[in-house]
Amino acid sequence: MLPGVLPDGDVDFHHGFAPELMDIGVEGVFGRLWSREGLARRDRSLLTLGMLIALGAEEELESHFRIAEQNGLTRGELAEVVYHTTGYVGFPAANSARQAATRAFAKRADEGDTAVT
């Protein structure tokens, strides 16, 4: 797996039903796709956010907003991603993404990171 890709403590990997699911996803997606050459992590974050917003995948979005910050995107740029999606996937999806980002940033603040860029 790529060090520094997933936010620390963000995913409970072995809990409850189908405990190996997260291992399979992390190995296949983060271990293989995110480590490929051809796109920078920052670019992969932009693409991933757009796809997750379109899918309405709020739980995954929360983690990926945090990952996107780790990959160099500012909160202003992340806001632009949310604004841009209104024209392609609609206001409800963009609003859900905004709410997921708000939760993600609150977690970061709870961890002592006060970045508001």
From TrEMBL:
<dbReference type="InterPro" id="IPR029032">
    <property type="entry name" value="AhpD-like"/>
</dbReference>
<feature type="domain" description="Carboxymuconolactone decarboxylase-like">
    <location>
        <begin position="19"/>
        <end position="102"/>
    </location>
</feature>
<dbReference type="GO" id="GO:0051920">
    <property type="term" value="F:peroxiredoxin activity"/>
</dbReference>
<dbReference type="InterPro" id="IPR052512">
    <property type="entry name" value="4CMD/NDH-1_regulator"/>
</dbReference>
<dbReference type="Pfam" id="PF02627">
    <property type="entry name" value="CMD"/>
</dbReference>
<protein>
    <submittedName>
        <fullName>4-carboxymuconolactone decarboxylase</fullName>
    </submittedName>
</protein>
<dbReference type="InterPro" id="IPR003779">
    <property type="entry name" value="CMD-like"/>
</dbReference>
